[in-house]
Amino acid sequence: MRNNRATGKAYEDEAVKYLESKGFAIIQRNFWCKIGEIDIIAQKDGYIIFIEVKYRKNKTKGEPWEAVNYKKQQKIKNIARYYLMLHHYQENTPCRFDVVTILGDQLYLYENAFI
Predict the structure, then answer these.
(1) Extended strands (E) in 5-89
(2) How far apart are the C-alpha atoms of 13 and 81, rounded to whole Å?
(3) Rounded-to-integer distance, Cα 62 and Cα 112, Å
(4) Could you tell me the pLDDT band of residue 2, with boundaries at 50, 70 and 90?
(5) 45 φ/ψ sector (left φ>0, alpha ψ -120 to 50, else beta)
(6) Rounded to the nearest 5°, which phi and psi values hold at 92?
(7) C-alpha distances out from residue 113 to 3, 27, 49, 68, Å
(8) Dihedral angle sign, alpha carbons of residues 5, 50, 76, 109
(9) CB 34 within 8 A of CB 81
């Protein structure tokens, strides 16, 4: 059985390369606090972007983006608020939430995936 953490890191590495090729500047990976974790925090076009990475080998368990349900979105938003406060960003700092999905070997970026 493969180590899930190592597998997750490998796909996050792929997502980082993909995002960098699209002009994203990676600020931090795996930001963790007691609420949970955000996979990637990046900056592009004046936005701070909080990015969730979801991988599926195939569609047996559904589409990768389906795992970023309402409950997961709320958790990511709370972690993002904490990150912004911790790093002294202004209240009006432009932010957005993106999702990178990996299905097999296909990567896709959902910009503004949720509000």
Answers:
(1) 25-33, 36-44, 47-56
(2) 25
(3) 21
(4) low
(5) left
(6) -95, 20
(7) 28, 19, 11, 9
(8) negative
(9) no
Compute the distance between CA of residue 102 and CA of residue 115 in angstroms, rounded to an integer.
21
Name the phi and psi angles at 102, rounded to 5: -130, 115
Average pLDDT over every residue of 102-114 = 94
pTM score above 0.90? yes
Q: Which domains does the chain have, with CATH numbers?
A: 4-61+69-114 (3.40.1350.10)
Instruction: Write out the two tokens for 60.
Output: 């047996």
Q: Are 27 and 41 in contact (CB under 8 A)?
A: yes
CB atoms within 10 A of CB 31: 19
Single-letter code of the amino acid located at 75: K
Cβ-count burial of 19 within 10 angstroms (0-12 exposed, 13-18 middle, 19+ buried)? buried
CB 79 within 8 A of CB 86: no
pLDDT band (50, 70, 90) for residue 58: confident
